[in-house]
Amino acid sequence: MQIGDLMVQSGVQFGTSGARGLAVEMTDRVCYAYTLGFLQYVAASGALQPGGEVALAGDYRPSTGRILAACAQAVGDLGYRPRYVGRIPSPAVAAFGMAQGMPSLMVTGSHIPDDRNGIKFNLPTGEIMKEDEAGIRAQVVELPVGAFTAEGAWVPGAARELPPEDAAGYQAYVARYLDFFPAGCLAGLSIGLYEHSSVARDAFYDVLTGLGAQVDRLGRSEVFIPVDTEAIRPEDVSLGRAWAATGRYQALVSTDGDGDRPLVSDERGEWLRGDVTGILCARYLGADGVATPVSCNTALEKSGWFPAIRRTRIGSPYVIASMATLVGEGLTRVVGYEANGGFLTATDLMRAGRRLPALPTRDALLVAIALLLAAREQGIPLSALAAGLPPRFTASDRLKDFPTELSREHLGALTSGDSQHDLKAAEALFGGRFGPVVAIDNTDGVRITFASGEIAHLRPSGNAPELRAYTEADSLERAWEMNRQCLDLLAGWRR
User: Fold this and answer.
1) pTM of the predicted model, to two decimals?
2) Which class is 3-170 in CATH?
């Protein structure tokens, strides 16, 4: 059976850095087969030797334990040793695998609802890239005869349990930041940690308190909550403001479900956008090269802080590839970030004689620490830190349960390849609401620039049936007004 064929049959397709789909479609059989395909591909490249170890971790979704067991079974059946490092953040298992020279996988659906799940695959060098994805699709795997029911579940007695949990991955992740940042550097700060169901909640607490902060654990949930750092839920907006209103905190911090996307609020409880935190983190780290998707706020360029900037398609593999290009050009402090706030480092970073090893995969914890320290060192609140950026504001939201095929059909009318036709089509779509259209960028989706300098960016989600709208303007109020108008227009496409 070829993995590419199984993807079509099962409905579980590749998204960013791995497979993702409905939990009911991610059967034991499907997850077992995908893990076989991944390991065969890694072994064929020479990066996994007979009897080698494979690290496995997962988030707190209800389906994660079952999927982890299927993945571990595949590892063992191929003659490798599954090393279960527990329910730890995605960047933690990736960093551990890179440090140990072993492939790894993370069972997570990230920020999407708990009726879905996924498997992120990492090579010993980091995330799989698009060429790796193609190689995995091409793998032909053999499944054990009689091991699965017609529905794809294990037959009784066919599966083994997960191996005992190994805490080494978690400990290494916590040590990564305690060893890099000075002891006591956050002493005197009071921080609210919005824990919800994030698998990063314990790591955040241990690192922030280990650096001296006073941390209150807030909103812990044993039921999975799909916190999306790009489309923040109204209830999370309300929670942030209510906690801040107590006057106890200099900041609130949180992440999405698998801990690779940060959520940081200022002292007023206002959650900062991920592309804003990315700029501020990059500046604090002294980056000389920055890679980021085309959807991110243009304050990056307008700040004048960075010698080299590269814009990419949306998705960490594209950011990683662009970071590699910057490194190849001789830059020595190369970072990347996404609109969701996930922050990547392509080079080792030095600060006060301490080294932070490169981690070319999305991480959330580094961002939270960097912003807290940047504000502290400047003697200003987080709100003032963000206000120091050029006045460009982005709003983003999405239409849920919006078929990807329908999105592509309508957006295709704006991407004919005939620039004059596309400009007129865009103006017709918006009906003059935002003024004349002066440029269209098709790097990823359709990014429309108006004569006013305002921007509307329309794009189908890469991993869920959603249509996203990003809008950028010189005030937050205007950005949100544009976003609401965009979503109203796009909702009409359903009819």
Assistant:
1) 0.92
2) alpha beta
